[in-house]
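My main concern about presentation is that the manuscript never shows what a single data entry looks like. Each protein is reduced to its one-letter sequence and a matching series of backbone shape codes. For the editor and my fellow referees, an illustration may be useful. For illustration, here is how one protein appears when written out as sequence plus structure tokens:
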Amino acid sequence: MPEIGKYDLYRYIPSIAAAAVAVVLFSIFTVLHMYRMIGTRLWICVPFTLGGIFEVVGYIGRAVGHSHPESLGAYIIQSIFVLVAPALFAATIYMTLGRLMRVTHAESYSVVRVTWLTKLFVCGDVFTFFVQGGGGGIMGTSDPDKVKLGQNVILGGLFLQILLFGLFILVSIIFHFRLRKQPTPESCAPTLKWQKMLLVLYAVSAVIMTRNIFRVVEYLGGRDGPLLRVEWPNYVFDALLMAATMAIWLVGYPTLIRPGKSLASDTESGMQMPEHIGRTGVAIK
């Protein structure tokens, strides 16, 4: 078993068994997401699928860290890829809300102009992606000052991501309330399960928010804090929660939204896409 040196990057020896389970689990989920994305041609789910790939790569890096805890490359890979994967999940979640507003023709119920909604959240998400990634790279050093700087950069990215999710949930709730109070004709279409889709958005947002709060607490404790000195919290409050996010999204896949067409039935339902789509985006029978 590898020995911990005077300055160990992890502060512990990463578990090969836990990393292997995570790699297998995220690989399965990623393949399933890729299969469904290609089958339904929902390209807004590309970032979500990439997030699964990032999780796989990240935990492979952690597995390598078991035998080579001194490997700076493996440490940086597992640190950055696991850290930023949720930002990729979030990008798809943000785009889904914008698409949902359009297919229900309820853009006026959004507190943020729909043309700006996706741009605002996705651009903010991309920014947090690079901030956290940069912070993870800075932490890959034996210099305590740079490690501290990296932690602060990551904290900034995490706080911004939490703020974005908070605003996103608020916008979603207001939209939900307004559409339920005064439904549009398009939202009454029986094939459009917009309320179910919003519940899925709430669920995955809450799970990712919980994970981000854990990460904030973790980094606020510093390198010598209790959460950075042991490994199990990373699997309970990060890996497990992100696996749950992928599972929820797989079950509640936004198959009612397609590029170029406002509404379509799930290809897995056995129904064929009608030849003509009406102005409302609901198939005319």
